[in-house]
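Hello K.,

You asked for the raw outputs rather than the summary table, so here they are, unedited. I folded two proteins back to back in the same session to keep the settings identical. This is the first:
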Amino acid sequence: MEENKNSINVTITVTNSNATIAPVAKVAGQTIINVSGPDQMQTVLQTAESLNLKLAEALKEPETPQPSVPFDKTDDAIRLRKYCDTDESWERYLDDIRTSKSATDLAKVIVMMEQSEENLMKDDATKQCFLEVAQPLAVNIKKGNTISNIRQRVYDAQQRNKNKK
């Protein structure tokens, strides 16, 4: 059996006399606690359990922070990457597309992409090939998730942006 260098072995010995807990002794890498009497048993077990929990927490590998967007290596997610200038913008737009709750929300993301990403031309934003990439990624859109409806919402969003300028 391979021994973990970060682990601590604890041996607890219990007897039924009325004596108190004996001093801790270390023998060959083990910590030995001698407990005498049933009254001390509950206290020792609680302390040992607490120590085990604290030790387990201390030995836990630190978690590496996960990106906000899980990298699903779906074909559509990978195909979306070619329209984004950087991995960071790809992650952000992928997350925004996935959280869109309506075709209008998705259209806003697409228009934002066409305004900030050099790889996505204005005409591409309404083309079938691009919308076929974005549509399956918009998993939260329950109705109105057709290519023609999304295209119309993109046209509407583009028109609103023109009127604001």
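The second followed immediately with the same parameters:
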Amino acid sequence: MTVDTWRKIWLSNFQAAKDRFKELGDHSYGKLFGINRHQPAIVIGSGPSLRYSLDALRDNRKREHPIQTISCLHNLGLFEDEGIEIDFYLSLDSGGVVIEDICEARNKDGAFYWSQTKGKKLIAYAASDPKLFDLWQGEIYLFNCLLPDMELRKKINDIEPFHHYISSGGNALGACMYTAKAIFGSSEIIYVGADFCADYDHKFHSYQTRYDNLDGKGLGQTIPWVDVFGNRRACWPSYLNFKFFLDWVAQNIPGLWASASEGILGSYPEGNLDRFTYGPLSYLLERYKMSEEVTVKKFKFENGQRIDDPSLSQLRLAEYFKDSHHPMEITIF
């Protein structure tokens, strides 16, 4: 049913991308291979618990070496309003839904948010809605999806054989994860806003949207599942499937996995998967801030007495190692 519904749209959009970009391979996300090798990455969904990580995401950008971030495009408007810079946005949709979503319940109209994309980086499905490429003013990197229909694949290959596929599990957050892990080469994936369920008050995002009341029927058909705290949550059947996919990845793909989300990722009635490290984002990032939070005190001895130099009490290690003439005391935290 999905293939039959989207067949003409996928072909039309793919042809439009070919006409726009000429050689799709010249814009492949494969050009980003290895850019974050052996470093952590923050993978950001748009679940309701995202609001608890906004301060930590903002603080991350103030670091000397910020941890790389990749977010579902849905969050563009929210992050612009919150003053949070993101390294990469990603879109998996072939329809125009994400174009509408980025400004829903936001402070300004869509034109403003699209104007802010200048200088930003988008990773997108080659068969995305052509309007997305019209609106985006920054860099664009493309990927393809392996569709479950051989006849359709042949028609797409006839337009251009573009085999830089993505493994997403059918959801944008999964595509962000795959990109950060397999393409960027990240050592640890830290999930934020990866809830895959509604909040306790049945809001689907961290702010009110049309998804909270679909056709006047609330969230629509949902399935109950326990969250990481053991509490019952409502989730869409497709989103429960997305959660199982990311759980499977964490169980089977080597690497480090952490979650600052408070939904159903990694959760089961018997308990949470031990493959994830759980905690607030600020806590999870502490592991990568040690050298930036070391306090250094400079002192000297005169007449057998130690004299501290208070003007250098907050000297960073980078500055400390430039001066080897005076003894210093290093105090962590």
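Residues 2-288 form one domain.

Happy to rerun anything if the numbers look odd on your end.

Regards,
P.
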